[in-house]
Amino acid sequence: MTDDVIRVFLVDDQELVRAGFTMLVDSQADMRVVGQAGDGGEALEKIQVTASDVVLMDVRMPRLDGVEATRRLQSLPQAPKVIVLTTFDLDEYAFAAIKAGAAGFLLKNTPPADLLSAIRQVHSGDAVVSPSTTKRLLEHFAGALPDAEVERPDLADLTAREREVLVEVARGLSNTEIAKLFTLSEATVKTHIGRILAKTGLRDRVALVVLGYETGLVKPNK
């Protein structure tokens, strides 16, 4: 296996689902399935001895669910990136997994091409946030979100433009869309996002989405 091949690890308690993902992933020239597990506990054991780049993680599994498995994975040295796979009725688990350190989340019925694209994006360092999925996730537990903005000390350090960019990131806009909205170059938008991450101490775009909603900067129905 060459260095440019993305090493994918599958975690799902349904063998048929893993078989389908294996066929899909292995059909690509730039990625290979290097291992699989039927629950989070087995995944933790195997991933520690299996070099992996990206983990496709189901959220509800026996023994150890995807949320706790994701949290524990992030404590490993050179931890792989995790993409959480969820269904609509398990959205609260997906959101918890994002907070635990997942780099993205997708619905299980995501088109194959979009899933493959997500694997490549996460591997390259980007986070995967589906605006439609985000909206459903947040509306699902909207009652737990603040009615008004909750100020955090690190938010006070943001410039007016950085705050505006943060809001649009939380709404699910891409860098291209944000650049067009504010008449900026994409490079400038990337710079703003990098500064926001540095000031807030957050790891990626997904964490910024969580921050935007948890602090009330963005409302689920807007």
Automatic annotation (TrEMBL):
<keyword id="KW-0238">DNA-binding</keyword>
<dbReference type="InterPro" id="IPR039420">
    <property type="entry name" value="WalR-like"/>
</dbReference>
<dbReference type="Pfam" id="PF00072">
    <property type="entry name" value="Response_reg"/>
</dbReference>
<dbReference type="GO" id="GO:0003677">
    <property type="term" value="F:DNA binding"/>
</dbReference>
<dbReference type="InterPro" id="IPR001789">
    <property type="entry name" value="Sig_transdc_resp-reg_receiver"/>
</dbReference>
<dbReference type="InterPro" id="IPR000792">
    <property type="entry name" value="Tscrpt_reg_LuxR_C"/>
</dbReference>
<dbReference type="Pfam" id="PF00196">
    <property type="entry name" value="GerE"/>
</dbReference>
<dbReference type="InterPro" id="IPR058245">
    <property type="entry name" value="NreC/VraR/RcsB-like_REC"/>
</dbReference>
<keyword id="KW-0597">Phosphoprotein</keyword>
<dbReference type="InterPro" id="IPR011006">
    <property type="entry name" value="CheY-like_superfamily"/>
</dbReference>
<dbReference type="InterPro" id="IPR016032">
    <property type="entry name" value="Sig_transdc_resp-reg_C-effctor"/>
</dbReference>
<dbReference type="GO" id="GO:0006355">
    <property type="term" value="P:regulation of DNA-templated transcription"/>
</dbReference>
<keyword id="KW-0804">Transcription</keyword>
<protein>
    <submittedName>
        <fullName>LuxR family two component transcriptional regulator</fullName>
    </submittedName>
</protein>
<feature type="domain" description="Response regulatory">
    <location>
        <begin position="7"/>
        <end position="123"/>
    </location>
</feature>
<feature type="modified residue" description="4-aspartylphosphate">
    <location>
        <position position="58"/>
    </location>
</feature>
<dbReference type="GO" id="GO:0000160">
    <property type="term" value="P:phosphorelay signal transduction system"/>
</dbReference>
<feature type="domain" description="HTH luxR-type">
    <location>
        <begin position="151"/>
        <end position="216"/>
    </location>
</feature>
<keyword id="KW-0805">Transcription regulation</keyword>
